Amino acid sequence: MDKRVFCKRFAIWTAVIVAAVIATIGILFGKVVEATLAEEIGKWVVAGIFIIGIFEVFAYVLAPLFYHIIYDKKR
């Protein structure tokens, strides 16, 4: 596996895992504070996109390091 493919997969799986955690927290511990349920869901979606974006920046920085730790030592 080359570095580019590994970094793309790392970023995608980071986004999937963070989205699942945010959805779980929203379902289990979320309280309806907005006027309607649609506004509450919209709030969680926008907050989720923002948080996923933050984690994607970390994934972009850390993916080459993890690639080096996992694959470069084997060569």
What order do the helices and strands come in, and which of them pair?
Layout: H1 3-29, H2 37-70
Helix pairs in contact: 1-2
Would you mind describing this structure in some detail?
The chain has 75 residues and is mainly α. 81% of the residues lie in helices and 0% in strands. The chain is built from 2 helices and no strands. The chain has helices at residues 3-29, 37-70. α1 packs antiparallel against α2 (37-70). The longest helix has 34 residues, at 37-70. The protein is elongated and about 55 Å long. The model has no long low-confidence stretch (mean pLDDT 89).
Distance between the termini: 12 Å
Following the backbone from N to C, one meets helices and strands in this order, namely HH
Rg measurement, Å: 17 Å
How many β-strand runs? 0
- Share of residues in strands: under 5%
Main β-sheet: number of strands, strand sense, barrel status?
none
Low-confidence stretches: none
Instruction: Label the structural class.
Output: mainly alpha
Number of helices: 2
- Shape descriptor reads elongated
Mean pLDDT: 89
Percent of residues in helices: over 70%
Please give a handful of descriptors for the protein shown.
75 residues; mainly alpha; elongated; 81% helix
Could you provide a short overview of the structure?
The chain has two helices and no strands. By secondary structure, it is mainly alpha-helical.
